[in-house]
From TrEMBL:
UniProt key word Zinc-finger: no
Keywords assigned: Membrane, Transmembrane, Transmembrane helix
Source species of the chain: Thalassotalea algicola
Transmembrane segments: 25-47
Domain of life of the native organism: Bacteria
Pfam families given in the database record: PilO
A GO BP entry: type IV pilus assembly
Protein's name according to its UniProt entry: Type 4a pilus biogenesis protein PilO
Length: 201
């Protein structure tokens, strides 16, 4: 038995919406399938798609929460070790702060530098404080230094500066032959010490 396409399509001719009950079975089946597809599409758009979007968002949040949990679990599991490391870091920081001169100690630093220079055999031409430079968490205190002496005396001077109990760094070295004699050199440099800047200063 062959399927007659013409006979099948004839069932859809002259269909009226007012008279659905009289439609042929094939037309009713096609209308039912079409209505089912439309209802399924509207249901998906109206009900399911929002929930799928929300599900994706919740899954992403779940991944983030798992990562946060792992991070916090790691911290909690190693809390004693972290506390010990924090105490050690605070001790190191406190020791470094003690190496920085207090505001009342900075004039004494010039005396220390003068003593180190003279015991190294140098003659001072200049030893002057420069204006303070405020940084984010510390204050830089530059000192311009000019001394006269021999090359090896300069080495001893720099070495002794590094051995001072307070932090002093040396910058911008310039060495020239002094006008006194060809064996005497003139050394210009800038020393910097630092002072911790308390919050709110």
């Amino acid at each position: 038995m062959e399927f007659d396409v013409n006979k099948f399509t004839e069932q859809f001719d002259n269909l009226e919406l007012d008279n659905l009950g009289e439609w042929p079975i094939a037309a009713k089946v096609v209308l039912t399938i079409f209505a089912a597809i439309v209802i399924a599409g509207l249901s998906y758009v109206g009900l399911v798609s929002d929930k799928l979007t929300r599900l994706d968002r919740v899954k992403a949040e779940e991944i983030t929460l798992k990562q946060e949990f792992e991070s916090k679990y790691h911290v909690a599991a190693n809390l004693e070790l972290f506390q010990q490391q924090m105490a050690e870091a605070e001790n190191i920081f406190a020791n470094q702060l003690r190496s920085l001169p207090e505001s009342h100690e900075t004039p004494g630093l010039l005396d220390d530098i003068t003593f180190v220079g003279t015991t190294s055999g140098l003659d001072f031409v200049k030893l002057n404080w420069q204006p303070e430079i405020t940084k984010e968490i510390y204050i830089e205190l530059p000192i311009d230094i000019e001394v006269i002496g021999a090359y090896h005396e300069f080495g001893g001077f720099v070495s002794k500066i590094a051995g001072l109990p307070r932090i002093v760094t040396l910058h911008d070295f310039t060495i020239d032959i002094a006008q006194l004699s060809s064996e005497t050199l003139n050394l210009k440099l800038q020393a910097k010490t630092y002072r911790y800047q308390e919050a709110g200063q």
